[in-house]
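Suppose a classmate hands you a notebook page containing two proteins, each written out with its sequence and a corresponding row of structure tokens. How would you begin to make sense of it? This section walks through that situation. The first entry is reproduced here exactly as it would appear on such a page.
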Amino acid sequence: MKTEKTDKKQAILDAAEKLFCETGYEGTSTRQIAKESGANMAMINYYFGSKEGVFIEIMNNRIAGFSSQLRIINEDKITSLEKLHKVIEGYANRILANTAFHKMMHRELSLTQRPEMYDKIKDAMSHNMQLIDRIINEGMENGTFNQIDGRMIIATIMGTLTNIVISPNKVMPCSNFDLNDPKDNKMIKDRAIAYLKDLTTVYLTTKK
């Protein structure tokens, strides 16, 4: 019975994510989520309370998944620069594995009418930011990195990848480029990872 409930809860989350990506947050109703998932309205209310609750649960699950990856990287017996490069690889892989979701998330959270939703998700994201901060601070403390603004480095990494997903034409001027094409996706991902690794290496380790 417990497994059946877990499966039904996951089915709701999977259906909601698909609909949010296709029609946006406002364009998706709890009734549509119920129909797509094979659940009923009572189940959605029981597990999540509301459509906003479903959205926040999806976001929190994704944030928690990246958090687990960051903890492993932090505990790895490698240099601070190698850790940061693993963060870049991990984040790029996660973002470019589901560009539709990332675009939807960026669009919805940037809307001014969702400050409460943004605040709840921001609180969940703060732990991941602290884990990346730890890598950068460790590098500064042991002399591997220059003394820099760590949060600006994080913003540069995340902002670059978000920009690529939202406006790929900025780095790929050809009109037939398609992030949904596996070949194009891999090409831009590899290019972005190489660029961000080079950028952070030069900025963090070149003696001033």
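The notebook's second entry, a different protein, reads as follows.
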Amino acid sequence: MTQFYGKTKICYGDDALETFEDLTAKQAFIVTDPFMVKAGFVDRIQSQLDRSGIRHRIFDGVESDPSLETVTTGTRLFLQDKADLVIALGGGSAIDAAKAITFFAHKASESEVKPLLVAIPTTSGTGSEVTAISVITDKVNEVKIPLNDELLIPDMAILDARFTRTLPPHVTAATGMDVLTHAIEAYTSRQANAFTSIYAKYAIQYVFEFLPRAYTCGDDMEARKHMLLASCMAGMAFNNSGLGITHSIAHSLGGLFHIPHGLANAVVLPYVIRFNSFDVGVHYREIAQCVSLPANTVEEGTKSLIQAVRDLNESMGIPNRIRELKIDEGAFREHMKTMAKNVLEDICTHGNPRSPSCEDIVQLLEQAW
């Protein structure tokens, strides 16, 4: 049996924040980072909550790649407040932290009712606002821990492109390539189906059309809106289909060498496409065709897609080699077997269309170096 699951209520457009007026919560717990407070974005949320008469606490301790310690602290404060509404405001880190806090707090409480979880993304990248996945970093052991549970899926996602307007170009680039990786891996996953393919295709088309515009001109609100939709669509797709080894490798590179997730995905993606092409080359040809790339044959379509990804990277200042990410070569080679082991154990690897061996991953890392 094949199934497609969509739980999150998605609200988008300039008036999406007005959705708060319909909420009946008593106590809100806002999970965000210091920049969101400094930039005044949290003020907009507070104003909406004040108008609705909802008390709130701000937890702005989320760092990039949220740690177990941060989630533990947030969970403790959340339980103290006995909040019935969690609002995640920020990029993937803030949303992942909020999802984990909500999950662990619900497990620790005696209540059978899970708090309402609302996600407001301020980057167009992770799709975390509609997925059952939260990635937390164990900084002691230098490894990223993907959590996967339906309880992690937000109840509501508010997509307001105004929150993404101030993203600097390099963040727009990296998060945008994260969207593209989500969509391509969802389209070629072992668990892909008719519905996930529709969402993934639209996301891919939007990225190729609108990411260069958003990168070049941050005030291009049409591009910002479409990238936010692309991120959400890709999230809907991979939440049902799973991902692949591009993400598994990116998780390991992030955990060991602190490479931003979207950037790691962007660099590794062309090499994974080539690795998987023996099994799903026809799908890569379909992707190439849907974005008007040369694709008269499967091989031509695959080559076109690989080159298009590399060209997109280069146009935004993203390197196409791991060595250009300022990773020490000695440390990289020393940890190669560890990375391969991490990849094989990563939950994302289960969706990869071609089953890799440890030697396959080592060879792929060598090629990407």
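A careful reader of the second entry would note: The mean pLDDT is 93.
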